[in-house]
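User: Let's play a game. I give you a shape written as tokens, and you guess the letters that built it. Ready? Here's round one.
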């Protein structure tokens, strides 16, 4: 639903789930979004696949500088998923916001640049 609200801007999707099979459930929706060029990139993290566990926040750690630049330029981060994931992503965003932008994350939340729909 959050993707449908922001289709006029390029979207970089960072999706986390347990397995590749769980991601497959979203393929029809993502294909439709790709047809209208709503999604520029899709990055996935699977916590229950063979090998080391990988979470969305692991993907985000690798691009801290890019996230900081996007926030500084007015970019929007939309977080959707479990409360536990939300809290871990917010902790990461708070640290990078302080480190790279000398600004608390609340500033970006108040500006409407951090949107959340978590359960």
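Assistant: Ready! My guess for every position:
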């Amino acid at each position: 639903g959050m993707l449908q609200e922001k289709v006029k801007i390029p979207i970089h999707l960072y999706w986390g789930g347990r397995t590749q099979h769980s991601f497959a459930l979203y393929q029809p929706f993502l294909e439709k979004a790709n047809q209208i060029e709503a999604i520029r990139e899709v990055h996935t993290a699977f916590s229950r696949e063979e090998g080391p566990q990988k979470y969305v926040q692991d993907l985000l750690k690798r691009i801290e500088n890019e996230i900081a630049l996007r926030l500084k330029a007015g970019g929007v981060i939309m977080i959707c998923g479990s409360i536990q994931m939300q809290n871990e992503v917010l902790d990461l965003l708070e640290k990078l916001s302080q480190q790279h932008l000398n600004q608390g994350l609340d500033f970006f939340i108040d500006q409407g640049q951090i949107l959340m729909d978590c359960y």
